[in-house]
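Typical record is below.
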Amino acid sequence: MNTSALPGVVINGKFLSAAPTAVHRVAYELTRALSEYSHDRNVSIALPPGGTLTWPAPDLPIKVVGHLNGIAWEQLSLPGASHGQLLVSFCNMAPFMVRSGLTMVHDAQVFTTPQSYGRMRSAWARLHIRLAGSAQLGLLTVSEFAKRELVSLGIAPAERIHVIHNGVDHVLRIPPDHTVLTRLGLTPRRYALALANLQQHKNIGLLLQAFARPALSGLTLVLTGRARAADFAAAGFPLPANVVFAGYVSDGEMCSLQTHALAVCTPSLTEGFGLPPVEGMLLGTPALIAPCGAMPEVCGEGALQVDPHDPVAWKRALLRLQNEPALWQGLSEAGRSVAARFTWDAAARKLIAVIAQVTAGRTL
C-alpha cells in the first residue's frame, strides 16, 4: 500500500523512551508496521530531547523537538512539530491545542472504573480524552466494545471513532528464553499464568482465592509484573503457597511462560482489548477469560469463559484443562486460529485507511 496520497503524518514518539507497557507495545508495533508502508518518508516521529530509547527505533525519520521533557514537551513543544501535518498519538494522551490529530484511546476505564487509578491520574486522563474526542479529527480505539463505551459516555459520536484491533504476531518474533522455567522452578503445563496487578478491574484476587483451594495444590499460579506478594497481602488477599510472584520478566521469558503454561488467565471485569490472553492463544496456550469487556469479542471461540465472581468456577476450569487433554488441544487449536487474525500489518493498513478518510479534502 502506498502512502504517497496521505498528508504529512507526525507520530508522537514519547513512548519510545518510556518504560515498556502494553500501551507502549501497541504504539511501538503500530509505528513499526506503519514504517513498512512509508518508503516515501511522509511519516516521521517526533521525540523529546535527551531521552534514552527503550524500544528499537522504527525505520522512520526521527525529529528531536524542543528543549522540554515529559508533559511539558507533549503540551508545548510537540504542537509546533506537527504544524501543517496530522499528529497521531497512540498512548491516550495528546496536546490540548492540536486539532489536526488522531489519538488512540485504548479503553474507557478511567471513566468506568476510576477506583483502579489515582485521583489525579484519572482526572488528567479524562480531560485528555474528552478534549481529544471533541476537538480532533477523530479517535482511534482497539475494539468495538471500547468504541461503544466511548460513544455511550459522549466522548465522540460513533462515526468519529475508528476501531483498529491490536496485533499479537509480535510474539512470533521474540526468541523464547526457556531458562525462566528453571529459575522459577516450573514444569510445563503445571502452572497458570496471569498478571500481578492490583487494579480492581483486573480482579487478580479471584485467582488467589481459587489457588487457595486444596484441589489446585498441584498447580502453580505465576504472576508477572510490578505488584509483589506483600502488596497483595496488604490488600487483604490470601497468599497460597503455590503462587509465584515472578516480578518483571523479559520479552523472551514472557514468551516462554506463555508457551508452556496450562492456561493464560484473565479474570478482568473489563478490558479494552486484552493482549495477554490473545498472545498466549497465538502461541498455542488456551485462554481462560471472564466474559467481560472486549475479551469475548477478541478471543471468540479460542477461549474458555469463566464467571469472574466465582473462584470455584476457575478451579473447575483449570482442573478440566489439566485432566481433559482433548479439551486442552481443541482450545489450543481454536485459539491459534482466532489469534492469527490479529496482525500488526492489518492494523497498519486500517490506520492508513483511517488517516486517508479523516483528512480527505482538508487543509491541515
About this structure: The first helix runs from residue 22 to 35. The CA atoms of residues 152 and 158 lie 9 Å apart. The chain has a mean pLDDT of 94.
